[in-house]
Amino acid sequence: xxxxxxxxxxIGGTTIKMAFISxxxxxxxxxxxxxxxxxxxxxxxxxxxxxxxxxLYELKQSKDKLVGIGxxxxxxxxVQAGTIEVxxxxxxxxxxxxxxxxxxxxxxxxxxxxxxxAAIGEMWKGAGNGAKNLICxxxxxxxxxxxxxxxxxxxxxxxxxxxxGHITSIRKDGILCKCGKKGCLETIASATGIVNLAQExxxxxxxxxxxxxxxxxxxxxxxxxxxxxxxxxxxxxxRIIDQVTFHLGFALxxxxxxxxxxRIVIGGGVSNAEDTLLIPLKEQFAQFAFPxxxxxxxxxxxKLGNDAGVIGGAWLVKEALINKSKGNxxxxxxxx
Length: 336
Known about the structure:
Elements: E1 5-11, E2 15-21, E3 27-34, H1 38-41, H2 44-58, E4 66-73, E5 77-78, E6 83-87, E7 92-95, H3 97-105, E8 109-113, H4 114-125, E9 134-139, E10 143-149, E11 152-153, H5 186-189, H6 191-204, H7 210-218, H8 223-231, H9 235-259, E12 263-267, H10 275-288, H11 291-296, E13 298-301, H12 308-322
Parallel strand pairs: 1-4, 4-8, 9-12, 12-13
Antiparallel strand pairs: 1-2, 2-3, 5-6, 6-7, 9-10, 10-11
Helix pairs in contact: 2-3, 4-12, 6-9, 8-9, 9-10
């Protein structure tokens, strides 16, 4: 009998990524559709169901080919109920995502926070493979995080475990975050935060360099420009990234001091800078990490890119339905 597939879904504010994945974690087909935020995102469950049906039809497969669907969604998630507590960018509030998609597809569904799903994906098939104590941080438009301790995702008391982006910086004059606090890590280490820091620095800096000249011409700066300028020893760019890695290293070291992880995986679009980010980050991290903790941890760049969420979703449904894990608090199987 042919092996059944797993469906992984990663819901973002702009696009919904989907994939059919083998039980060994291989991607059979992947695609994406636009995120329809009209009427507070009420059409998203049916959009997902229709898209899955379409791709099964194109592959000449019936719905029986799928074990189930694992979904990563933004915002705090009640993993037991499969509901999204709040997803501001989409318009959801107490949204019964699992029940709606199960009703549309007649398939079992597991729902998890999107950053947690990405962390699981990196653990299974990416840079975290083999680690049972893992911190995964995604540096994108915002800062997301997933924490795995002794092979289990940390959800916390009400589903907000792993909100690394909202660790408060030591900057007293921190920027106001969307969450309502000032100085959240997200306002500094996200792509948006880095650009904001750069604009402030470039407006006040007297240094002359390529980054400054480009900014004077266009009044626009991007993360890629900043990291490219670091490679060319641009003083202003180096100063900006020093600020970013100081705050990021401080936050990650204090998390590591509490959790003693084996690996810290850095993902998201900002991680495309690779060593230009990682080398100064390791130096800053070492300043604040307890020596014994620093000896046991490895800081690495994520490997799966945009596939982390769908692969993590597939793993979640595999563990919940095939390996008969109880509920949605899943443990790392020894085969990982």
